[in-house]
Write a structure and sequence with these properties.
Urease, subunit C, domain 1, globular, alpha/beta, 17 strands, 4-stranded parallel beta sheet, about 20% strand, TIM Barrel, 8-stranded mixed beta sheet
Length: about 425
């Protein structure tokens, strides 16, 4: 991905650096050749060269680009999980993914960690973004997900003799688990997504159902993945499943819904980030009926919502780390609503705007393993910056309205927002 050339100064705004400290008023942020060279008060800013560009933040907020830590670029606002393996061919899924990637960037998300994808499209989506063929967030790619037979993602009856080749690996035992990971290694993914526990979306394999994967299968996945320098995450709602994942060495936990004190203590010892993805639950409860979700499923999402909010509060109170990622890509929780997750955590869960923004920037970069490159506004880091018309700390819901964005910058280049120019298309030719 190209970096800007020359010098740009952003001024006349309150700056939130992503580290959790109070905002800096009347701040200046200087960028040279795509990297941050100064962050501080206007009174201490260095002299600016005549050739430098300037951006007036108009009294608004300057903050790091947001990180969507549970991104499904290939989910296409489906009405049911089953749509994922029967509705569209890989060619159309690829096109949909590129549209969702552009939308995420326009919504202020300059980086994203995949939470699983169809057909390993993420690997090629990442390549297209990095080669500036399409706009999108800096991407950590996942691939087909891993689920044991009879688990959450194994819904086709055996008599149909239909595999899940585009969506998941259905495994039986440790050898299948290792084989699935090795296939993903060949495909070039960075993250392995698994399904250790159930979910309210499947009443027969509900949130408290632990044995969607055995501990031995989970450990085999982790050992194989770590041997190849891949990271592992898992859809973990049930308490025992969370503990199994932590004991197996998972790098992150998705959801972490029903946690007892033992699970929380183990989480703190491991310092493993959790991505609760709770706005999905609220949207499921509020809008599920119009999409035909049965009442038993809606009741399950309500239970998940309440328990997940309490777990998130306890994790942050204990000094743990939360990432912000909303599991978007369902009809009732569509792409483009990403920042509703942030508003939800302030208004419904009770976190402060500064806490939520830290989760959505610095912690997100840590989850991606790229905290030295972006996630905070510090000298030497990539200039991935979001400039917003308004005080985000006074009203975080401003981030839901991309019309309020003056600029979404990646590496100092304005990619979206009011100040953006049309995205250039450059066809690369092989030599």
């Amino acid at each position: 991905m190209k970096l800007a050339s020359g010098t740009t100064r952003i001024s006349n705004g309150r700056l939130v650096d992503g580290n959790g400290g109070p905002p800096l008023r009347d701040a200046v942020l200087d960028i040279h050749d795509g990297r941050i060279t100064f962050v501080g008060p206007a009174a201490a800013a260095p002299l600016l060269s005549r050739e430098a560009n300037t951006i007036d933040a108009r009294g608004g907020t300057i903050l790091p680009g947001l990180v969507e830590a549970h991104f499904h670029a290939t989910y296409f606002n489906i009405a049911a999980l089953e749509d994922l393996d029967i509705k569209y061919p890989v060619e159309y899924v690829s096109l949909l993914a590129s549209v969702n990637a552009r939308l995420a960037l326009e919504c202020g998300y300059t980086s994203a960690r995949s939470g699983g994808c169809l057909f390993n499209v993420d690997v090629w989506l990442k390549k297209a973004i990095e080669e500036d063929l399409i706009p999108g967030p800096r991407l950590s790619a996942s691939g087909r997900e891993i689920c044991s037979a009879g688990g959450l993602m194994d819904w086709n009856p055996e008599f149909r003799k239909i595999g899940m080749e585009g969506l998941v690996f259905i495994i039986n035992g440790t050898e299948d688990a290792r084989r699935a990971v090795r296939s993903l290694v060949k495909d070039g993914v960075e993250w392995v997504k698994t399904y250790p526990t159930g979910d309210a979306a499947s009443p027969d394999i509900n949130d408290h159902h632990t044995l969607c994967m055995t501990f031995e299968e989970m450990y085999a996945v982790v050992a194989t993945a770590h041997n190849h320098k891949l990271k592992v995450t898992g859809h973990c709602r049930a308490n025992e499943g969370i503990k199994n994942a932590l004991r197996a060495g998972y790098d992150t936990i998705e959801h972490g819904t029903f946690m007892d004190n033992e699970a929380l203590d183990l989480l703190m010892v491991r310092n493993t980030p959790v991505i609760p993805a709770l706005y999905f639950e609220k949207a499921s409860v509020e809008r599920g009926p119009e999409f035909g979700l049965p009442q038993v499923v809606i009741d399950g999402h309500q239970e998940t919502l309440e328990a997940g909010a309490e777990s998130a509060r306890q994790i942050l109170k204990a000094g743990g780390r939360l990432g912000m990622g909303g599991d978007y890509g369902f009809g009732w929780n569509p792409h483009g609503d990403y920042a509703r997750e942030l508003t939800f955590f302030v208004r419904d869960v009770g976190l402060s705007p500064l806490e939520v923004l830290t989760c959505a920037t610095r912690t997100g970069a840590e989850i991606m393993g790229r905290e030295k490159e972006f996630g905070t506004l510090e000298v030497g880091k990539l200039a991935d910056v979001l400039i917003v018309d308004g005080d985000v700390l006074a009203d975080i819901s401003i981030l839901e309205d991309r019309r309020r964005f003056l600029a979404v910058m990646q590496g100092g280049i304005i990619k979206a927002g009011q100040l953006a120019e049309p995205f250039p298309i450059e066809i690369k030719r092989e030599k």
